[in-house]
Amino acid sequence: MIEPLPDLLVQPIVRAALAEDLGRAGDVTAQACVPEAAELSVVFAARRGGVVAGLSCARLAMAELDPALAFEPHVRDGDVVPAGAVLAAVQGKARAILSAERTALNLLGRLCGIATLTQDYVDAVAGTGARITDTRKTTPGLRALEKYAVRCGGGVNHRFGLDDAILIKDNHVAACGSVGEAVRRAKAYAGHLMKVEVEVDNLVQFHEALAADPDVVMLDNFSLADMAEAVRLGKGRVVLEASGGVTLETVRAIAETGVDVISVGALTHSAKVLDIGLDAVG
After folding, report:
1. Which partner for 54 in 111, 197, 265, 278 could form a disulfide, CB atoms 3.0-4.6 Å apart?
2. pLDDT single digits (tens) 11-31
């Protein structure tokens, strides 16, 4: 079971999204058409099968406008559901439900889409031992939610930001003069709990990286043959991460080279929203 994100973290994101949608005058359509005392019963229903993520976003969006509202989840984050599945049932003030609808659906559909795509990648490498991880290519302001959705889909998280691990990229190497020098400086700076990863573009740089003894080496846009050679040389000495242009069509072959981790930016920057609707019932 996936441990949900705390409401304390999710609520500010939901509130900002609601404020953006409600604007200066609130939902004028609901105010004009729906009696203030009217009640409504609705369900969140999947129009397409996929992996659930982000139920708390829908719950908090609704509850923010009607604290007395009843929100009954029918599934859990991380569950795989078919088309037509009811994810949750809601009953409360009609105006509140209608005003929160788009915010709830936007966040829920986005996160379910990421979780669903992540599971597709995880399934594609099943049995190889390679793990699928995300990147920092996330929607500004939504990183914690999107990385949570990756976990719901069976993936693992890369670093959350610039402050929780050292990742030396090609431009850092250019500024330092060499891969080895960059790694040496990083290891001298890092505390005992901070990992050091370095990106390399070819086997020459890979040999230089191994000599400097980082924790992780990222094989950026390596050919399969060069990746397999890097695995032969470095497996067990460092964690080996494959990165760059990974697709569902290529990820299995990459995993079969023996790398430990495959990072996929597409999980968060190119996931298709899972189509979810809000349907009135009763």
Report:
1. 111
2. 999 999 999 999 999 999 999
